[in-house]
Each structure stands twice: as structure tokens, then as C-alpha cells.
Design a protein that fits this description.
Chemotaxis protein chec, alpha+beta
Length: 153
């Protein structure tokens, strides 16, 4: 189970809120983080950032394709191919983890984003049994941020 504090999780909540406000000029509604067990809300596209050094685990940003298309439109991007949707979800995951890294410090090493379209059925085997889930609502869309990160002892 994650040993991140409430203050630590707040960093991820602020990062996702800041991302939407900066990119779309509109705030997203960011829910309170809750600890989930073996049931993680995933969507069409997911960006994954793994962490290492003094930390282990991963951060997942998962969004429906319609939300990503709307985000690309808000960014004045006309190419809405699967490749661009994957790039968008990877960029969001990377931005959130990069902002969190400023708080956690250089002893949190983050990977380049892994971008996944249409998740495999075995995702629950990849995420540890407990992880924090943060639901993001923007316009009429719903995405999720799953924080499956802990400190190494």
C-alpha cells in the first residue's frame, strides 16, 4: 500500500488542476483522492510514468478518446489521429509527474511516458492491490489519475 501522505497526494491533485487551467483556460473539477483496491477506473487511452530511485510504482493518467479530442481542439490541434491521442495522454502524464517531481525532489526519477491505447485486461495485475484514485471532470468528460507510488524504505 502507498505510504504517501495527504499532503503528498495533494501535489498530484494540484498538478492535474493546473494542467487543465493552463492548457484549456478552464478549470477541471478534481475530486478528492480515495484509496481503491483492485478496481481502477480506466479509459480508452492511458499514459504511464514509472518512478524509481527512492520511490517505486507508477502514475497512470487515463482518459476517454472524446475528452482527448476535445483537449486537442482546445489546443488548436487539428490532427486527432490515434497517434496524437496517445501523445496527448502521454504528455499529460509526463507533465503531472514532472510537476510532482519538483515537490518530491531529484530522488524521484521518472521515466518517459508509456502510452497505451485500449488497455489490456490484465491491468489490475500491473497496479499493486491498493492505489490512490483521483477523478477529473472537464466539460462533460471524466478521466482518472491513479497514483500507485510509494517510498522505498
Amino acid at each position: 500500500m502507498s505510504d504517501l501522505s495527504e499532503k503528498d497526494i495533494e501535489i498530484f491533485i494540484e498538478a492535474i488542476g493546473d494542467y487543465f487551467k493552463q492548457i484549456t483556460k478552464e478549470s477541471a473539477s478534481v475530486g478528492v483522492a480515495y484509496l481503491a483496491k483492485n478496481a481502477f477506473p480506466m479509459n480508452d487511452y492511458t499514459g504511464v510514468i514509472t518512478v524509481s530511485a527512492d520511490y517505486e510504482g507508477a502514475l497512470y493518467f487515463s482518459a476517454p478518446s472524446a475528452m482527448l479530442r476535445h483537449l486537442l481542439t482546445a489546443m488548436k490541434e487539428t490532427n486527432q489521429s490515434d497517434e496524437n491521442l496517445l501523445d496527448a495522454v502521454g504528455e499529460i502524464a509526463n507533465t503531472i509527474s514532472g510537476n510532482a517531481r519538483k515537490y518530491f525532489g531529484e530522488n524521484m526519477v521518472i521515466s518517459i511516458p508509456e502510452k497505451i491505447a485500449y488497455l489490456p485486461d490484465n491491468l489490475n495485475e500491473l497496479v499493486r492491490p491498493y492505489a490512490y484514485v483521483i477523478i477529473i471532470k472537464w466539460k462533460h468528460y471524466s478521466a482518472s489519475l491513479i497514483v500507485d507510488i510509494s517510498r522505498k524504505r
